[in-house]
Amino acid sequence: DTAVSQTPKYLVTQMGNDKSIKCEQNLGHDTMYWYKQDSKKFLKIMFSYNNKELIINETVPNRFSPKSPDKAHLNLHINSLELGDSAVYFCASSGSLAGFGEQYFGPGTRLTVT
Amino acid sequence: DAKTTQPPSMDCAEGRAANLPCNHSTISGNEYVYWYRQIHSQGPQYIIHGLKNNETNEMASLIITEDRKSSTLILPHATLRDTAVYYCIVRVNFGNEKLTFGTGTRLTIIP
Fold it and tell me: A32-74 pLDDT, tens per residue?
């Protein structure tokens, strides 16, 4: 059983399009995150949700809109895609029992904008 | 979150212990030391964390100096599958705080 899953694994699209990435965790965690890893391999937090409420928003352009329908899912919708959005996007989750520093990451979604 | 300093790269022979150092001289009293690794193209993987005592789990050992200004992650018997980028992160262990990843140490296990 995959603990944190993301779909799709690869996403190739053109500038200006709108796309979504889905994330699901079956760990019973109440906090979920989105991270972005750019071409230089820097890994940076974008958003964090706790029990469906936004906790962290790291000055991400408002073209990026996370949506959490329930605490097991955190989807990322991106409007008007730009070349600079090309990156690998990782979803993660954590729970209060293990401590919030112990985060479990998904396999990543490689987004390529042409 | 306190800043950490790690060597950019290290090599280790297969079967030997890999010792990865991390400096965190500005760590606060309530901040823990966390270690993650990222194997090529995969999501980061939690390894271990500690506050001030040495910690050991099935993956690694964490040695934190008495003044807590530095630590060492030890992989006791490195295998080729341990080749990865290793990140040392300090942060509090409560609340929904982010993980701030630095540049890490690229560990290469040599056959």
Answer: 999 999 988 889 999 888 888 888 888 789 999 999 999 899 9
Q: Quick check: A103 contacting B, CB < 8 Å?
A: yes
Query: Which among A90, A99, A104 has the least Cβ separation from residue B93?
Result: A99
Residue B30 CB partners (closer than 8 Å, separation 6+): B92, B93
**Straight-line distance from the first to the last Cα atom of chain B, in angstroms, rounded to the nearest whole number:** 37
Q: Provide the token pair at A63.
A: 């073209």
Per residue in B6-46, pLDDT tens? 999 999 999 999 999 999 999 999 889 999 999 988 999 99
Report yes or no: B14 and B109 within 8 Å, Cβ to Cβ: yes
Contact B46 A56 (CB under 8 A): no
pLDDT class of A30 with cuts at 50, 70, 90:
confident
Helix (H) or strand (E) holding A21: strand A19-25
CA dihedral B4, B8, A93, A63 (to 10 degrees): 100
Asked if B61 and B47 count as a contact pair (C-beta separation under 8 A), the reply is no
Can you give the C-alpha Rg of chain B in angstroms?
13
